[in-house]
Amino acid sequence: MGMSASGGGGWKSRRSRRRRGGAVMSEINVTPMVDVMLVLLIIFMVAAPMLTVGVPLDLPQTQAQAVPQDSEPLVVNITKEGKVFLQDTEIPIDELVPKLQAIGKAGYEERIFVRADKSLDYGTVMRVMGRLSGAGFKRVALVSEVEQGN
Q1: Which DSSP string corresponds to the chain?
Q2: Is the pTM higher than 0.90?
Q3: Which tens digits make up the pLDDT trace of 109-118?
Q4: Average pLDDT in the 10-39 region?
Q5: Averaged pLDDT of the chain
Q6: What pLDDT does residue 139 have?
Q7: d(CA 110, CA 4)
Q8: Residue among 114, 68, 123 nearest 87 (CA)
Q9: How far apart are CA 100 and CA 108, in angstroms?
Q10: Radius of gyration of the chain (CA)
């Protein structure tokens, strides 16, 4: 009336399935691992853009096209209070050029992006730009946001 688990036509679980040699064949279910990896991928995709801006600035808007990038540029940030940041670290304006020369891998051909708050006076931006060009840096660009439609 009943079927035997060890009989020829009986039910066998995946774990107890044996190969010809008598060794137990184990199977790994990778579906949960793939699910976790996809969730982590989504989290990192959402979080990555938030990590790119370290110094909060209100950038001016222009209709200019984006500059093509061949390598990761150095970023100089100027806040509305006139504080100067190299990447995310605040530095005195007198130390800006020596630090850029020490960090720059391409020497004076290093690409430098200057980000300045739009409420900052023009003279402060020009003072920083003047120090950079006076030191011999040739690839200095101003960063702005894309202007929204009129």
Answers
A1: ----TTSTTS---STT-B-TTSPBPP----HHHHHHHHHHHHHHHHHHHHHS--S-----EE-PPPPP-SSPPEEEEE-TT--EEETTEEE-GGGHHHHHHHH-SSGGG-EEEEEE-TTS-HHHHHHHHHHHHHHT--EEEE--EEPPP-
A2: no
A3: 778 888 888 8
A4: 73
A5: 76
A6: 80
A7: 77
A8: 114
A9: 9
A10: 30
